[in-house]
Amino acid sequence: MAGRGPVREGSLEAPKRQPIDWRNPEFVEEAPLYAELERVFDICHGCRRCVNLCQAFPTLFDLVDESDTFEVDGVDRADYVKVVDHCYLCDLCAETKCPYLPPHEWAVDFPHLMLRAKAHRYDKGATKWRDRLITSTEPLFKAASTPGVAGVVNAAASSRPLRKLGQRVAGIHAEAPLPSFSSRKLSSRLDDEIAADVITASDRTRGKVALFVTCYGEFSEPETVEDLVAVLNHNGIAVRVLKDAGCCGMPRFELGDLEGVASAKDANMPSFLRAVEDGYDLMSIVPSCTLMYRQEVPLMYPDDDDVARVAAAFFDPFEYLMLRHRAGLLSTDFHQPLGKVAYHAACHQRVQNAGAKTRDFLALIPDTQVELIERCSGHDGTYAIKAETYDAAMKIARPVVGRVRSAEADVYGSDCPLAGRMIEHGLEGESGAVHPVTMARRAYGI
Q1: Which long-range contacts (CB under 8 A, 24 or more apart) does 292-295 make?
Q2: Using CB atoms within 10 A as the burial measure, which of 128, 242, 392, 413 is most buried?
Q3: Average pLDDT of the segment spanning 72-99
Q4: What was the pLDDT predicted at 4?
Q5: CATH topology for 329-444?
Q6: pLDDT tier for residue 14 given thresholds of 50, 70 and 90
Q7: pLDDT-derived band of residue 10, with 50, 70 and 90 as boundaries?
């Protein structure tokens, strides 16, 4: 092409994720999909810089190295699914490692190619019933949190005989960390509106936050959302609790059920748009849920103005607080030091490219030292609870667990509640993980 230079080894330009062409029938057709898998796998084989991120890349490279040709063309295409099964769409390869993401001419987007392969399998009806069940988080969590049922479910999760039965029958690993459930859901604990005395906007924040509480915050760890509300209110930020919003759709996204994601989007958008029109910013306690509406849903609907408005209004909690700090609007009247903190930065938070804002906030607390850990925890949605991937998840988690243990910290935790539980599981009964918003509340003494 005229004016085009030679192919470059990599790219120094900022990555630019391309729209997900999921409505195109070719998106799930086998022939074009497998041709693209072979093309991208060949580029990854020649690069190999992502080998330590997860199990997908070692699986791919082993298939190549054990083939007759030592190249991708020697790998049986039927084995491509082994790579797909180990991708949990953390996005780290695309956002932190890959030099060939668009705008590079090779246009490699490994996570979204894996999404396409998962969508192909879902479209064929080849997805396991167990995977369909455990990604139905909203009805599953709601049922498990029913008064009178929550205690039974939590007890069953601690029963070794029942867990072994669950592994044989359903493929849920007997040792995997499972969420606990609260019989008193978040929406019954908090008012719809929590006012602030004086609302002050900044150049980037409006001083009013509508909280997307998520399945996890509503049914499993409502106390963490209560802590977030307390921290926001302490900083003069009014809060609206979005009690009519449901699942973000990330579990269905990871399954390849993109129509399920579309349904979740359609259910949530009216609530989000009302909040934005009423002058609120949006926030979620779970990085994956924030990422869905900041990145994945916008890439599925690149021409939808309402989706773009919602994406622009979504913030990570500590990103928001540090923006307020930059504007001179953050309270720094901390009363309780935290000592040494081992802080794990969640993958789906890191790839939002907002910087290490949780670390920066915690570092403001007097007599507090923060050790930042930037590696995957290995939980990754449903990956760590499946019988066939539990061991791989624990292998991925091992360096993080080792860093936490060697830090000899006074407190540790992650922005992702599931990551925190995974680290806690790896520490085998040592002190429990604490969410950073809970740390913040302790430091404020509120």
Answers
A1: 292/248, 292/249, 292/250, 292/253, 292/261, 293/212, 293/248, 294/352, 295/17, 295/351, 295/352
A2: 413
A3: 95
A4: 46
A5: Rossmann fold (3.40.50)
A6: confident
A7: low
Round the CA-based radius of gyration of the chain to a whole number and report it.
22
* pLDDT (mean) for 179-186: 90
CA distance linking residue 122 with residue 100, whole number of Å: 28
pLDDT at 444 over 50: yes
Structure tokens at 165: 């039965």
In three-state secondary structure terms, 81 is helix
386 bridge partner residues: 172
Question: 439: which residues sit within 8 A by CB, 6+ positions away?
Answer: 338, 341, 362, 411, 413
Give residue 43's pLDDT band: very low, low, confident or very high (50, 70, 90).
Answer: very high
The CA distance from 426 to 395, in Å, is: 10
- Which helix (H) or strand (E) covers residue 192, if one does? none
Peptide linkage before 222 cis (omega within 30 of 0): no
What pTM value is reported for the model?
A: 0.93
Secondary structure E strands in 44-130: none
* Nearest to 49, CA basis, from 105, 88, 10: 10
Beta bridge partners of 212: 284
Looking at the chain, the whole-number percentage of residues with pLDDT higher than 70 is 97
Parallel/antiparallel/unpaired status of strands 281-284 and 411-414: unpaired
Residue 207 CB neighbour total at 10 angstroms: 21
Q: Give the whole-angstrom CA distance, residue 170 versus residue 387.
A: 9
Our separate counts of H helices and E strands in the chain read 22, 8
For the beta carbon of residue 9, count every other beta carbon within 10 angstroms. 9
Element (H, E) at 240: strand 238-241
- Residue 8's pLDDT is 60
Distance from C-alpha of 347 to C-alpha of 353, rounded to nearest angstrom: 11
Token pair recorded at residue 180 = 């606990």
User: 297, 314 in Cβ contact below 8 A?
Assistant: no
Instruction: Give the CATH fold of the 186-245+254-322 domain.
Output: Glutathione S-transferase Yfyf (Class Pi); Chain A, domain 2 (1.20.1050)
Digit-coded pLDDT (tens) for 214-266: 999 999 999 999 999 999 999 999 999 999 999 999 999 999 999 999 999 99
Closest Cα partner for 110 from 130, 95, 125, 128?
Answer: 95
Tokens of 326: 């930059």
> Where exactly are the structural domains of the chain?
25-123, 186-245+254-322, 329-444
Three-state SS at 417:
helix
Distance CA 390, CA 397 (A): 10
Q: For 304-337, what is each residue's pLDDT tens digit?
A: 999 999 999 999 999 999 999 999 999 999 999 9
